[in-house]
Amino acid sequence: MPFSAVSLIDSLDLHEGDWMVQNAANGAVGRLVAQLGPARGVHVLGLVRRSAAVDELSSQGITDVVATDAPDWRERAEAIVAGGRVVAGVDSVGGPAAGDVASLLSENATLAVFGAMSDPTLQIPSGDVIFKQLVVKGFWGSKVSREMAAEKRAALMGEVIRHVMSGALTLPVAASFPLADVAAAATASLQAGRVGKVLLHP
Fold first, then answer.
1. Which residue has the higher pLDDT, 22 or 116?
2. I need a surface site. Which of 4, 156, 178, 195 has the fewest CB within 10 A?
């Protein structure tokens, strides 16, 4: 997951001071992007489906998050960006959520399709694509990794390791189980609404 997040950011050709927007901001990759982006000087606006997730992310130190269940969520998002250029977006949900991301992008921005958690199709208004001249592309982490030069892969992994070692990159842990309790760990990992990873230890 961390390598997918850092290689995703790297693939978007983002520069210091740029804005990007992502949905599923409370997912594992979303949390990583929200931490790795600012480490590169990139501002990350996160979209989540429910207001409770905003507080949940805030407790992890992740801010600039808007819940799309609020009627004025677009206004809130625009207030956070405050006139900045949103040069990239990441959709991990599909369906109309992809259109929500596209609606916040600036002209000539790129929308990367990372996943389809809710819908295997994209619902993006053609007006946004045409008049903003958006570029829509897919991102498949394993393919990107295979085709990446070894030196580049090592540099990105080193970036992740540095941030983990410094404590700047974290992921919440929901539960930890000994290897003997692997069945209980599997059950816990399938729990709806789980926040954080389920770990196994010796």
1. 22
2. 178
